[in-house]
Design brief:
356 residues; two-stranded antiparallel sheet; 14 helices; 74% helix; mainly alpha; 2 strands; Na+/H+ antiporter like fold
Length: 356
């Protein structure tokens, strides 16, 4: 049963995030410390240094041999359900698009499991349930955030190529001629083959530490747990000195972004409600279906649904900001999601208590 002390523990875990957020916001809005160019540089620092090291650090300390693979299977099925629905929406709806497909997937599936999930789930179901939340976070970092990074890079690279003129087009490109409708003049337009585009995308991802931080981390975890040895302290200390700043600098960068917007609710009320519906209802509903398919029950079922209703992943905002895709929507989802998550998740807790 959740008591006032448990609620306080969750608030205690979340409050420092808002301190970092306010410091970032105030440094631009009130004190004028950073220029827009400097704000972009800070986001790159977070994206290319603190977050990859943070991801590596927590995946490297996992034990892959003790994972609940039914739980992970339910999580994978829920995300595949979301993908199928979004593909159908993007193809069949006049409002569907590739860009909103990416953002809607982030809003529906990517959660803040470590900061909010761990203290809340511990209060609800005890320390054994925390292991499930950590497992979900590891799989999210290894698979789903990596996929998100790929599709964002694919979109950005394709857009960059499409915006180039024939005179500045790369040579990974193929030119072709078409006849104008009004005469015999020819127009040369650049086109990139799919393989050429993929080559550019993979090259960029190879230079992005987010692409392989979680892979290296889980590889280390497999080796370390198989042969029972620990990371050398000099190596761990070198990682921790930057990784400990991961979440804080991410929230600071979000504050910088907020301060540069005209309105505090950067994306407007309609998109805010849209994001909250996807985050707190669509994700848990898909997870419930996944749990039924694999046969989860008891507290494992309850933990699976509640962790799917956790607030928005901070990393998803950093990626959105870096790649210029609906950062206003993701920042609002993170900020408001953490504000409203506590009553929503407690409501789920009491409703799920009736399940047997």
């Amino acid at each position: 049963m959740i008591g006032l002390e448990d609620v306080y523990n969750v608030v205690e875990a979340m409050a420092p995030l808002y301190v970092a957020l306010l410091l970032g916001y105030g440094s631009v809005k009130w004190w004028g410390i950073f220029t827009p160019e400097q704000c972009d540089s800070i986001n790159k620092l977070v994206s290319f240094f603190t977050l990859p090291l943070f991801t590596f650090e927590f995946t490297a300390h996992a034990d892959p041999f003790e994972m609940n693979y039914l739980f992970i299977g339910a999580d994978a099925i829920s995300k595949l359900i979301i993908l199928v629905v979004l593909v159908f929406w993007a193809k069949c709806s006049s409002k569907g698009s590739y860009c909103w497909f990416i953002t809607s997937f982030s809003l529906s599936t990517l959660t803040n499991t470590l900061v909010v999930g761990v203290p809340l789930i511990k209060a609800m179901y005890g320390p054994n349930a925390v292991d499930l939340v950590v497992q979900a976070s590891i799989v999210q970092a290894i698979i789903w955030l990596t996929i998100l990074l790929f599709v964002l890079e694919f979109r950005k690279t394709g857009s960059d190529i499409a915006s180039t003129t024939p005179s500045t087009s790369d040579s990974h490109m193929i030119s072709f001629e078409i006849k104008d409708a009004e005469g015999n003049d020819t127009t040369v337009r650049p086109r990139t083959s799919f393989l050429g585009l993929m080559k550019i995308v993979w090259l960029k991802l190879a230079l992005n530490p987010n692409s392989y931080a979680s892979i290296i981390g889980i590889t280390w975890a497999l080796i370390a747990n198989r042969w029972h040895f620990q990371m050398p302290s000099i190596m761990e200390g070198s990682i921790l000195i930057m990784s400990r700043a991961g979440t804080g600098t991410a929230m600071f960068s979000m504050g910088l972004f907020m301060a540069q917007q005209k309105n505090l609710v950067a994306c407007g009320p309609t998109l805010t409600v849209f994001g909250m519906v996807l985050r707190f209802f669509a994700g848990p509903a898909a997870m419930a279906i996944g749990c039924i398919i694999v046969g989860l029950h008891g507290d494992t079922l309850r933990v699976a649904i509640i962790q799917a209703a956790l607030p928005q992943s901070i990393t998803s905002f950093i990626y959105a900001k870096e790649y210029g895709l609906h950062a206003d929507v993701l920042s609002t989802a993170v900020i408001f999601g953490m504000m409203v998550s506590l009553p929503v998740l407690i409501g789920y807790y009491f409703m799920l208590g009736f399940l047997h």
